[in-house]
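Sanity check

After download, print the first record. It should look like this:
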Amino acid sequence: MAARHNQRAHAILSASASFRWLNCTPSAKLNAEIPDVTTEYAREGTCAHELAEFKVNQLLGIRTDNPTENLDYYDQEMEDCTDSYAQYIAEQMSQYSSPVVMVEQRLDFSRYVPSGFGTGDCVIVADDVLTVIDFKYGKGVAVSADHNSQMMLYALGALQLFDALYDIAEIRMVIFQPRIQSVSECVMPISELLHWAETELKTKAELASKGEGDFCAGEHCRFCKVKATCRKRAEYNLQLAQYDFAPPEMLVDTEIEAVLEKADQLVSWASDIKEYALQRAISGKQWNGYKVVEGRSNRKYTDEA
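Expected structure tokens:
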């Protein structure tokens, strides 16, 4: 049995950005006020999702047009990755006698998050198990499904659809990343999911929707649109930089280890500041003591043939 609802849209308190706004509630409204910039990686991911959706629909016997000719990005790797995704879905379905499967399903979790909704790549309901699967085409860092807030929000939305029809006892969340051969899975009882939703999610989402709460810097700053100019992030990184070194002229091993622990975050913050300043300068902003000059790129062949 299959159900389908395809609507790609984004909420202010989106599931995909939940790691950020749950950790830094006032960042939600700030980011919502800044237009999105679509990258080539994002467009490539959208194309892969369209092809993956087509293949899973084929698997379910739903007739849809093959999108391949209209995709901006398409290659053999995308073909192979979406094949493996469809095969994985088939394997999951085969575990049950009559599963309900939904593809690109709009999931509403507004009971806990004001105006909150998202799109689940694949949702499978069978017996007392609710499975939510997210297809990620990125090939950077492997994303863990373990208590992943995006997946937990999707699960809450799926639960809204099926809780009255099925006696669901267990939530199964899967992140499928074929380009790095990663399949991460997290299983939790429904009671744990609902406890998180009532005791943590609801309160933070309410603050985020109003732009209230305290700014907080950390790993979640990575995809924040205001990360370059955020004062809290600046204070956080400057505090990291103010390491209290011991008197000897040469650094000891423990001090080097302390620097290494903080170096990546400091470099990332400095790079974000430089990029922000450059883009403003290109747009006409004058920075005291600095000017934009044309860069020179030295290139050479690594293989003369």
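If your output differs, re-run the checksum step. Summary of this record's structure: Residues 140 and 181 are 12 Å apart (CA to CA).
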